[in-house]
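Worked example 4.2. Below are the chains of a multi-component assembly; read each line carefully before continuing.
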Amino acid sequence: MSTIAFRTGARRRAGKLRPAWRQPLAVAGIVIAAAWLVVAIFAPLIAPYDPLAQTFTPSQGPTGAHLFGTDELGRDVLSRVIFGSRVSVPIALLLVTLAALIGGLVGALAGYFRGIVDGASMRIVDLVFAFPPIILAMVVAAVLGRGLRNAALAIVVVAWPSYARVVRGLVLSVGDSEYVQSARLLGSSARRTLFRDVLPNIAGPVLVLGTLDLANAILLLSGLSFLGLGAQPPQAEWGSMVADGAQYFQWWWIGTFPGLAIFTAVLAFNFLGDSLRDLFDPQTAWGGDDRR
Amino acid sequence: MAGAPRARRRPRPSSSFLRFLLRRAVALVLLAVGITLVVFVLTQLVPSNAAATNLGEQAAADPAAVAAFKAHYGLDKPLPVRYWLYLQHLAQGDLGQSALTHDAVTHDLGQFIPATAELALYSIVIAAFFGIAFGVVAAMRRNRPVDHVLRVASLGGISMPTFWIALVALYLGFFKLGWFPGAERLDPGVLPPPHRTGLYSIDALLVGRWGLLVQALHHLVLPALVLAAFNVSLLTRYTRSAVLEVVGNDYVRAARAKGLPERVVVTRYILRAALPSVVTVLGLVFANVLTGAVLVEKIFSWPGVGQYAYQAAVNLDVPAIAGVSLFVAVVYIVVNFTVDVLYGVIDPRIRVR
Amino acid sequence: MSALLEVEGLRVRLPTPTGFATIVDGVDYRVEPAQVFGVAGESGSGKTVSMLALLGLLPAGAVVEGRAAFGGQDLLRLRSRELRAVSGRDIGMVFQDPMTSLHPMLSVGRQLTEHVRRHLGLGRHAATQRAVELLEHVRIPDPSSALHAYPHQFSGGMRQRIAIAIALACGPRLLIADEPTTALDVTVQAGILRLLDALRRENELSVVLITHDLAVMSAIADCVSIFYAGRVVEFGPRDDLLQHPRHPYTRALLDALPHPEAARDTPLVAIQGTPPTPQQIPDGCPYHPRCPYAIDVCTTHDPPLAQVDGRRLACHVDPFDDVE
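Applying the procedure described above to all three chains together yields the following C-alpha cells:
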C-alpha cells in the first residue's frame, strides 16, 4: 500500500537517536497514539453515555451536555467517537500485523530460496499490485459479504504484497552482501546467519513500513465502512459515522468529529513513521543532518 | 577548418533498452491475462443468482427458462470452459450485461469513464504542479521554517481521509459559502456539449461554448481539489526526497561554477536529475486518484467509474464488477508501463548504451 | 607584472550544529599570469574551501572575510549577479570526480555550450562550432558525434577532458582544478597533467592546481603552497620547496612518500597523529602537537607567514635552515 525506498547494505547504520525535544513530531505522534490507546481501553469509563442509546434529542449541535452534539437518531456523538476508537485502531493494528507476517514470510522465502518460489510469489504480488487497493478491497468485501471482519480481511489481502516485496529485496541484498558471505565462510550456520545478520537489517524498514501502513489501513478501513462495506449500523465506527454525516451534512457535527478522530489517529502514526524513517535514512531526513 | 559540423549521428536507442521495453510489454500482456483469471475467479465466488437477477422473478421460477438462460450463457459448463468462453467474449470486446442497468457493461463504462477521466486529469495536473513545486521549495530551503511547515502540512495531507475532506469541502464550499455547486458535472437541466472526448470542459472548449466551459470547470473545482489533496502531499514528500538526493551532487556545484543563473540550475540541473524518482511515484499517484475517485464521486454525486464500481459491488452486479476491475487493472498496468518508458526518455543512461 | 589573483586575509567559517568552525584561517597568496600555482595539503586542510569561497560556492550560512582581487574587482564583495558574470567566464573550475561533476542526463554538447551562449552571447551554430573546437583541443576523438553523446558513454579520463573543455569554454584567464586527477587511474593521470600543461602554455592560462598528491605537484606546478589547518605554512618555487623543504610538515609529507629506490625493509614513514578538526585547532602553531621540533613558543604563538630566502615560511624553528 505505501511504498518505501530502502538502501541496501550489510549493516545499515541507523542514524543517531536524537533527543526528544529535537523531534517534536515523533513525540507528538507517540503522545496522540498513546492518548487514543488510553481512550480505547477506558472507553466505558470515559464516555458520558451509551453509544447506542437513541434517547437524546436528535440533531442537536454541540452543547455542554453533548460536547460533540447528537446525531439524527438521537445518539451522543462524543460517546460514539470514543467507542469508535475501539474499532478502527485495534483492528487496523491487527490486520497490519497479519499482513506483515504473511507478506514477510512470503518475501523471506522468495528471497531465500529464489528460483521458482521467488518467481511464482512475485507474479502473485504483481497481480495484487495491479489493482488499486480500494477496488480490490471493495470486490473482496462484496464477495465475502459486508461486515467489519470481512473488510479487514480484504485489506489484509491488499496489504501483504508490500511487505513481501520489501522483505524479499532486503533478504536478497543482505544475502548477497559481503558481510554475510564472509560470515558464512567463517562457518556460521544458515540459521545463525538468519538471526544475527538478516533479521536485524529487516526489522527497521519493516517497522517503518508497518507504521506508515497502519496509517493507511485506518484510512482504508474507515473508507470501506464509509461505503457501507465495513462496519454495519448501529455499530459506532468512525468511517460509517462520517457516511451518516454526509447524508445529513447540514448538521456538520455528525460527520466532522469522527473524521477529526480518524485524522488525528492517522496523523499520529504518520508522524511516528516519518520519524522512524528519518532514523534509518538520515540523508533525506526532515530536520536531519544536512552536512554532506 | 571552416564549415558546418559533420552530419549528426544521434546515439541510437540501445538495443538493451528496447529489449527491456519488450520484456515489460510481454510481462504486461501476461499480467493482463492473469488479471482476467483473477477477475473471473472473483466473479465465480460472488454469491449471486444470475438467473434470478437477469430474468426477473416470474421467469426465474420457470425451470425451463432458467435452463435456457444457463445454456445460453454457458453457466452449466465446467469452470475451465467457462473461463475460455469468458476470454472469447473479452476478445470481442464483450464484457457482458450489467444486472443493474441492463445495458452492456462496455456501454456503461463508455458513459462513466469520461467523467472520472476528466476529474482525474484536473486533479493530477493540480497535484503535480503544486506537489512538485512545494517539494522543490522544501528541499531548497531545507530545515528553514518553510520546510518544517511543509513537512507538517504534507503529513497532515496524507492523514486526512479523502471522504472527510470531501465532506468538509462540500459543507463549506457549497452549503455555507455557496461558492460552488454540490453535485453532478453540470447544473440541473443543462445539456452537455457535443460528444468528442466525453470530457465536458474539453468538449465545450472545442466548440467554443464558453459558458458551458466555465460551468463544467465550476463543477470540477471542489471534487478535483479534494481528490488532489492527498496527492499534493504525497508528491511534496517524494519530490523533496528526490531533490535532496540530487542537490548535493557535484554537477549542481559545477553548474553554479559555470555562472548559470539559479533558475536554470534548479530546473535544468536539479529538477531533471530528480525527475526519475518523482516519476516512480506517478503509478502510486494514479492509484490514489482511482481510490479517491470512488469516495469523492459518492459525495459529489459524480457519475463516474467510482460510483459505478461502488454500485456494482454493493449490489453484487457480477458482470459490472468484473468489467470495472478488469478495466481499472489494465489501465493501471498500462500507466506503470508508461512510467517505465518515461524513465528511458528522461534518463539517457537507461536508454543509450 | 601585476598578479592575476591576489588573496589577502581570507577567512572562512562554516556553520555546524555546534557553532561556527573556522575552516580557512587567514590565507594570503598571489597567482601570476600563465602560472601553475600548486596548493597542497591533506583533506580537511581548507584548500578546497578557500577556492570555493572565491566563486561563491560555499554552503548557505558561510561567513567569508578578506579580499580576493581579480580583474580589478574584489570577488568576495561581488553581488551574486556580478559574480556569475565572472564565474565560468573569466574563472573556470574543474572538479575532482568527472563522473559526478557532469550532469548524467544532459548531452556533452549541451553542457559545453549553455554557458558559452550565456556569457559570450553566441548563437547556436557558433556555439556548436566552438564546442567542436574545444573537444578537439582536449583531444577527444570524433568531436561532432561526441556532442550528442552523454557522459556515461565516455571513460573517466575522457570525461575529465570534457570537464576541462567545459571549464575553458569561455576562454578564462584562470582555471581552478580541484584534485583533477585523484579520481583517475594512474596511467590516465599523466595524460591529464600533460594536457593541463599544454593548455596553460597555449592559452596564457593560470592554473590553481589543488591536490594532496605531491607527485602530481612536482609534475607541472611552478610554485607550491602547503596548507595545514586552514592556513598556508610554506610557499615557494616548486623545485626549491620540494627538494629543500623547510617547514617540518612539508618535510614530513615528503618523507611519507614511499621512495621507489629505498631498501626493501625500509619502514613506511607516517606522520604521527592526525590533522586537527576545525573545532580542535590547538593554540599557537597548529602543527606543534605533531612536530618533533616544537619548542615552547610554538605552543603559544601562531607563527606568521614570513618571507625567508626567496620563499615564505610559517615556523618559529626553521630546523632545516642549514641543511642543503
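Take a moment to check your reading of the output against the notes. DSSP finds 16 helices and no strands in chain B. Chain B touches chain C through 30 residues (CB under 8 Å).
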